[in-house]
Please model this.
Amino acid sequence: MIGKLNHVAIATPDLEAASRQYRELLGAEVSTPVDMPEHGVTTVFVTLPNTSIELIAPLGEASPIARFLIKHPDGGIHHICYEVADIEAAKKALAAKGVRILGDGEVKTGAHGKPVLFLHPKDMGGALIEIEEV
Model:
């Protein structure tokens, strides 16, 4: 079911500063910020040869990232995203094994414009896992 690592998401209180670090200190290609109101975040993608890093910052006070940053004010790893070929089949298989899907349990459109789901960290060894159909 699980495919390759798509990205690692890092929550940051200062998206501009984090972007600058990757661009200027590490020499990485960094995208322009994109607001995603349906998820309550602003995202930036850092392109790497074998995967990418998603820098995420809160978009509004109700953002789940704002709540994350209360517990982790300096930021930190927020989630890991893996690719799947068929998100509906993955959803059914995971639900049959007792894995909870966050939110309303329905597939959403993610930052890449592709279908995504988030799996409950308590069912995934403490890590927030995103699966994305490719």
The longest helix spans residues 15-25.
